[in-house]
Specification:
The chain is α+β, with helices and mostly antiparallel strands and about 500 residues long. The chain has 16 helices and 20 strands. A hairpin with a 5-residue loop joins strand 8 and strand 9. Helix 15 packs antiparallel against helix 16. The N and C termini lie far apart (about 145 Å).
Length: about 500
């Protein structure tokens, strides 16, 4: 086969566009590949002017080269070769990027023509541009981003990754993701990584601990995705790691604080329960005799400041009182117990204990709220003289006692302010003659200041009506009253201590 035939056979089957030019500048041959590359036939390509082939900038480069080439040929000097990237027009007006190589060919030492090869590199240039954009995004991103091989080796690492892990990019290339993972966290994510390589999934996300170059442990939220070859085989993995060390450590501190708070709350709950049990232990039991007395104490969820007592201080005088200190917790309970212990310890002379107004005046002097950390208290205090059937009482901000006789009810109330608020408060005692069969009910405000099931607050009048209704029944009890109160409340629980004292007079 002649060499010309062999050349034409190769040219017509080549993937690149092969063309030849005579020394007069005319195109003498264009291979069929031009139709695939530029969308025109070889005949159309041979007939095109330079302006139809290349955009202006590329056409200028071609013209400059051919000027030098033809000048060298005319002068008999070594003709220059050319290799460069140029833009070409396609038939539809779009632009393709071609890598052009021009070689003058000779016969017997003289240049007789020009051979050109144009390779379409448009897709490669797109890839390079995309790669450049990807590199720019990686380099400018604050998120640690990496390109991994399927075996876990680092191929590329952006500056954020180097800063996060304390390695430079070259040092990371000698490591795998396993080398950066804390030993206790190697297992999480291993199965998912294997599944990605096997083609069973394309991505996963995990939170784990990593080890920096300086040995410091950090927490990272890592996401991994896979780039695959056309056959589905894993080609590269893209990994991003967000430093969440501060967030995790903050959560750990929060968990620890919550644990400590639970311990503290349990300890406080135990102390409050202990305080409530102590308060209940010092309260009196039922009392028999000419005046039968029963009581009922329901502590709130937080220990409160209720305390009461009733006792005969001689054969003719019965003392009864109910204290309610403001607030909840151990401190109000301590104030309540302090007042209670003072009244029953003999600190006050008997002459004072028999005069309700004098008792309240003395308490107001000894327990000013500024010396009780702002705590004040209400009290209803009464002295019953059995020989005269007379009850003398005084109140300080406390709800009135209720006296139930046959067919009637009376409120035993007074208008004085609570103990401890004003140093110059005046307290007045009032007398009430107790008829046979009379019942008197003392209570703290926790018995009626309650939310109802409809969200409204229960009124004192409704509470008083319930008490009057029960008192009319022959065998009623304080337990029945508590159950009736609970039935009208929203939660069947008391927001405040509920203290009840019932006195039945022969």
């Amino acid at each position: 086969m002649r060499s010309e035939e062999l050349y034409r056979l190769l040219a017509e089957n080549a993937w690149d566009v092969i063309w030849t030019m005579a020394l007069d500048g005319s195109i003498t041959y264009v291979s069929p590949a031009v139709e695939r590359v530029r969308g025109i036939t070889p005949q159309e390509a041979m007939a095109q002017s330079p302006e139809e082939i290349n955009p202006p900038a590329s056409a200028a480069v071609v013209a400059e080269y051919f000027g030098r080439l033809f000048a060298a040929i005319a002068n008999g000097t070594e003709p220059p070769h050319f290799r460069g990237e140029l833009e070409y027009y396609r038939k539809d007006g779009s632009i393709m990027i071609g890598e052009l190589q021009v070689i003058p060919y000779t016969s017997d030492g003289e240049v007789v023509g020009i051979l050109g090869v144009t390779r379409d590199i448009s897709e490669r240039k797109k890839f390079e541009a995309a790669e450049a954009r990807y590199r720019m995004v990686m380099d400018s991103s604050n998120v640690a981003t990496n390109l991994l091989a399927p075996d876990g080796r680092f191929l590329l690492a952006n500056p954020a990754m180097c800063k996060l892990m304390g390695y430079d990019a070259e040092a990371l290339k000698a490591l795998t993701w396993r080398d950066l993972t804390a030993p206790d966290h190697l297992a999480p994510g291993t199965d998912e990584f294997v599944e990605i390589i096997a083609g069973e999934r394309d991505s996963f996300r995990s939170v784990k601990q990593y080890v920096r170059a300086d040995g410091e442990f950090i927490w990272g939220d890592a996401s991994l995705s896979c780039l695959r070859k056309p056959n589905g085989e894993a080609e590269h993995l893209i990994a991003q790691i967000v430093d969440i060390t501060e967030m995790v450590e903050s959560q750990q501190r929060l968990v620890e604080r919550e644990r400590q708070n639970r311990i503290l709350a349990e300890r406080l709950r135990a102390e409050l329960d202990s305080a409530a049990r102590y308060v209940a232990s010092i309260l009196p039991g039922d009392l028999a005799g000419p005046v039968q007395i029963s009581s009922y104490y329901v502590p709130s969820q937080e220990v409160g400041g209720d305390c009461f007592d009733y006792t005969w201080i001689d054969d003719d005088h019965l003392i009864v009182y109910l204290i309610d200190v403001s607030g909840h917790g151990v401190e109000p309970a301590l104030v309540s117990v302090s007042v209670h212990n003072m009244l029953r310890s003999g600190s006050l002379p008997k002459e004072t204990l028999l005069e309700p107004d004098r008792v309240l005046t003395e308490l107001n002097r000894r327990f000013p709220m500024e010396k009780q950390d702002g705590n004040f208290f209400t009290i209803w205090y009464g002295v019953y003289q059995d020989s005269t059937r007379t009850l003398r009482y005084a109140g300080a901000g406390h709800p009135p006692a209720m006296a139930f006789a046959t067919g009637s009810s009376t409120l035993l109330e007074s208008q004085a302010p609570p103990i401890g608020i004003f140093g110059d408060s005046t307290f007045v005692a009032t007398s009430h003659v107790v008829p046979p069969g009379c019942q008197i009910l003392l209570y703290s405000d926790g018995a009626f200041e309650l939310p109802l099931q409809d969200g409204e607050l229960w009124s004192f009048d409704e509470f008083a009506a319930l008490c009057s209704q029960l008192a009319a029944e022959p065998n009623w009890s304080l337990g029945m009253l508590v159950e009736s109160i609970q039935q009208v409340t929203a939660s069947e629980l008391f927001d405040d201590d509920c203290s009840l004292i019932r006195l039945n007079f022969d």
